[in-house]
Amino acid sequence: GEDVEQSLFLSVREGDSSVINCTYTDSSSTYLYWYKQEPGAGLQLLTYIFSNMDMKQDQRLTVLLNKKDKHLSLRIADTQTGDSAIYFCAESSLYGNKLVFGAGTILRVKS
Amino acid sequence: GAVVSQHPSWVICKSGTSVKIECRSLDFQATTMFWYRQFPKQSLMLMATSNEGSKATYEQGVEKDKFLINHASLTLSTLTVTSAHPEDSSFYICSASARFSPISGNTIYFGEGSWLTVV
Q1: Between vectors from CA B20 to CA B72 and to CA B56, what angle results, nearest 5°?
Q2: CB of B96 within 8 A of CB of B86?
Q3: Cα B46 to Cα A9: distance, rounded to the nearest angstrom
Q4: Chain A closest-CA separation from residue B1 CA (Å)
Q5: CB distance from B2 to chain A under 8 Å?
Q6: Going by DSSP bridges, is the β-strand pair A85-93/A100-101 parallel, antiparallel, or unpaired?
């Protein structure tokens, strides 16, 4: 079945770049998403990438997709303390809207 | 952007009672809504998928008689936890998507989540 894996924890200093990695197994994954969850809150969609793209940039966020290796990464430039949260990688196939989530990566930003 | 609202944000109920959580899409018609459950410090687990006007499709291991899902309109889905027990205490999150379009994408919007505590 589908599986999405992420590293569990990342700690960076304020102002540095953060890179959160994700791997997935479903070769039919068409959309790959990054969500942010702050403590006690719902999910905020940060960005998503279509599988025929290898990069997408949106302000401080850069998503890289290596479809051959089924590897997705999220780079946050100039990381701020407000970026501290859990980041979830998720994927869905073309034929359904069901999302399969990774376990989430806790990002801690030290000032 | 699209907004999905859940209500209540948090609820405490007695063991054995039932509690209903609502999920509304405020500015778009949601043909499909999803209900997820999240335990502390864990990822989201899909419970069921509901399409407007039809029965929900439950994931393996989710009791359909315990977690009743109704998607009566294109803007509202409800999750009713029947005969709640303390182990049902969790964070429940809904998400909604509009009609899928290969051109515009497959964006799914999440509600703010509902904390359920069963005492």
Answers
A1: 40
A2: no
A3: 23
A4: 11
A5: no
A6: antiparallel
* Collapsed DSSP state (helix, strand, coil) of residue A111: coil
Q: What is the DSSP letter of A8?
A: S
Mean pLDDT of B47-62: 90
B62-69 long-range contacts (CB < 8 A, ≥24 apart) are: B67/B35, B69/B35
In terms of Cα–Cα distance, which of B88, B73, B105, B34 is closest to A56?
B105
pLDDT digits (tens, 9 = 90+) for A38-60: 887 888 889 988 888 999 999 99
Split at pLDDT 50, 70, 90, the class of B106 is low
Q: How confident is the model at residue B53 (pLDDT cuts 50, 70, 90)?
A: confident
A3 CB contacts (<8 Å, ≥6 apart)? A24, A25, A26, A100
- Phi (first) and psi of residue B87, to 5 degrees: -70, -10
B34 touches chain A (CB under 8 A): yes
B67-93 mean pLDDT: 93
The confidence score (pLDDT) of residue B104 equals 45
In DSSP terms, which residues pair with B62 in a beta bridge? none
pLDDT given at position B100: 54
- On whether any CB of chain A is under 8 Å from the CB of B16, the answer is no
